[in-house]
Amino acid sequence: MILPKKLRFKTPAKINLGLLIHSKRADGFHELETLLQMVAWFDELELERTLEKVDLFCDTPGIPNDETNLAVKAARLLQKYFPSRCGGIKITLKKNIPSGAGLGGGSGNAAGTLLALNYLWDLKLPRKDLLEISAELGSDVPFFLMSPCAIGTGRGEILQPIKNPISFYILMVYPNFPVPTAWVYGNLKLKLTKSKNNISILANFLTRSEFAQLGKALCNDLEAVVFKRYPEILGIKNELLSLGADGALLSGSGSTVFGIFDNPDLAKIALARFATEKYKVFLAKSVKSFSEFFPDEMIQAF
Q1: What is the separation, in whole angstroms, between the first and last Cα of the chain?
Q2: Which CATH topology does 6-163 take?
Q3: 105-120 helix and 70-81 helix, angle to the nearest 10 degrees
Q4: Which of 152, 169, 205, 239 could potentially form a cystine with 156 if both were Cys, beta carbons 3.0 to 4.6 Å apart?
Q5: pTM for the full model?
Q6: Catalytic site residue 14?
Q7: 156-210, pLDDT tens digit by residue?
Q8: Element housing 50 (H / E)
Q9: Could you tell me the fold of the domain covering 169-285?
Q10: How crowded is residue 302: how many other Cβ atoms within 10 Å of its Cβ?
Q11: Among the options 14, 73, 95, 237, which is catalytic?
Q12: Does the active-site annotation cover 280?
């Protein structure tokens, strides 16, 4: 088989429909439970095989092109593990998902890069190996190789796929500033996060198509920290609910807030309300299949 020199694909955003923080771990991370859902808001990537170097080019100011970019780090990690089988790569990234927004854009880029290079470099690594490598890149990265919807435990890297979740509309509102993840976790008061919320119950609402109950059950233990410091983010959540969202929540550590809608007309009205220079907004449906964004040859490679 003659492998192509170049591959184009997309990588999605994610939201956390639930996020519970249980304890601080010895490795400095937190023990958590989360319900992750991919969303059809995509970055666009093109990977082209070269001789040796890993280069990244991005049209968005402020996006790093060194190893602090997870896509670059992913390529160099494969080169480290399989030096005789990997060449160089030129990565061209069109960034549509805001950076530092709690939407996992960089983690999705890294996962997509691993999967694309598995094909372009003919590594033939099974999904299990790719998942182990991806966990070295960040807690959210394995999710983008596992399933469009999954429960995450541990640091978030231990994943249980959710089969056949319902499809729904998601309006994401980014207030045009990031919230530092390290600051959020550093200011988290664990004794205040004990709750009766249950991620498994949340997942059951999703699989049983009980949308109204899903909206009411959305939960994020990090909201109290973020809302206290950034009341304008709480204002976004309250406005989404007043505009008819069935539920609204901070995604991850923020700063994006999303509203979920069963009614597309209400979602479009809410979109129009937030469509100002003050925000970056995007209305999308939940992702149900890898085929919505990965080419068949990438999917078949693992």
Answers
A1: 16
A2: Ribosomal Protein S5; domain 2 (3.30.230)
A3: 40
A4: 152
A5: 0.93
A6: yes
A7: 778 999 987 788 999 999 999 999 888 988 888 876 445 556 898 999 999 888 9
A8: strand 30-50
A9: Alpha-Beta Plaits (3.30.70)
A10: 18
A11: 14
A12: no
